Amino acid sequence: MVKLWRCEICGDAYIGDEPPANCPFCGAKRKFIKEFKEAVVSFDVMLSEKDKKNAEKALEVEISNAAFYFCASKKANEVEARKLFKALGKVEAEHASIWRKILKLESIPKGMDSCSEDYTLNLQESHERETRAIKFYKNAFLESDNKRVKQLFEALVEIESDHLLLSEQRGVVK
Ligand SMILES: [Fe+2]
Ligand SMILES: [Fe+2]
User: Fold this and answer.
1) Interval 80-109: pLDDT, tens
2) How far is the CA of 117 from the centre of ligand 1 (A)?
3) What's the structural domain count of the chain?
């Protein structure tokens, strides 16, 4: 029977018979997706100085990666490549919006990142960007004492690790 589900990472709701294996908006794993009434979601977090600095950096990373993916999508010739990069761009834009809410910002700047004309080079750059993001998020997780902030950084490590697999499945060597 159709139900309303909610992702505890991005807070967005999904309508479906079953919970999705991954949040269709932010990519979070199924363990974070609950029936709407059971989901615990908060963007009202008391940030330490360190958490605030890391949240600001995370926002920057996600804006930058979203812009890169949308650029790569526009340059791609094949439909699959176009759709892959667009899907990745949407997920990263959703991540930026998580940090926007945590930082209580009204709006966020648009990323200006460029990309290559070449699909393979863009896949390679995707892999490098995701690797850097994972490293940063793992460190930010360790630096935080806040339960919600740690949960977000942990979920993002998992999500960006999935993104690494997408480029590896298409021939990028780790
Ligand atoms: Fe989500
Ligand atoms: Fe991301």
Assistant:
1) 999 999 999 999 999 999 999 999 999 999
2) 31
3) 2
